Amino acid sequence: MKNKIDLSGMLMTVAKFSACLLPLAPLHVVAQVVDTSFHNSNLRDGTLLRDPGSDAPLSFLVDESFDQVAPPVLPQGWRSTATNWQTVEDLIAISAPNAAHVFEPPFISDNFLFAPAFISVAHMQLRFKQRMDIEYSKAAPDFAYDGVVLEIAGSRNGPFFDIENKGGTFASGGYTHLISISNNPLAGRNVWSGLVPDYKDVVVNLPPSLIGCLLFVRWRMGTDGDLVGADGYYLDNVQFGVPNEYIFADTFEKTPQACL
Ligand SMILES: [Ca+2]
Ligand SMILES: [Ca+2]
């Protein structure tokens, strides 16, 4: 499907579609999409990128930058179970000026950030940038007291499972620590933790067994009760996409089926 955008079969109305191809320049595509299937209207645009003068593959990127809202409000379609997850200004955000952030409390807590629903297609990846200052063990650096995981579910209210437990794999930027203490909601789980002052890439291969499924993912921070917290976790430039092929974010493709 390279070099082609296939709009067939989508549960939507395309209000506007335009494309302009200039020699030695990226192909810029604007598609204004009114999604009629999931009761929300979304306007999306993106840039179809190709290195000028090469046969490099195309990638259609649609991303959430958290920059179109005023902090602390989360973007449309995103939600949290607590006010601890919110949009904040971040001076080193990958896309300025905002990122999503969760503070690391010094007490036992469980904090969720839910992305909009999406339908998984073949070869789909979830990509994002993250940085953090989260309590880990300086004596045993593979272990952490607090941390963050990525979870997936087949319905809005769960149950949610660790992305790796349902066949997801990390192409890069996988978990770094193990929660080795018991008084954390993520006890015994692999997590992201530690001091990562600059944004790093995470690329997740979504489970191949869940193609065509309506899916939900959430970021989850679990903290223990040792009275030690820190600045916490920052998230930016969340992208759902298919390398080298076309993609629209979240709910625009195919008829979803319930999974998980
Ligand atoms: Ca941003
Ligand atoms: Ca702690």
From TrEMBL:
Name by which UniProt lists this protein: Uncharacterized protein
The keyword Signal is assigned to this record: yes
Domain of life: Bacteria
Lineage: Bacteria, Pseudomonadati, Pseudomonadota, Gammaproteobacteria, Lysobacterales
Signal peptide region: 1-31
Keywords, sorted A to Z: Signal
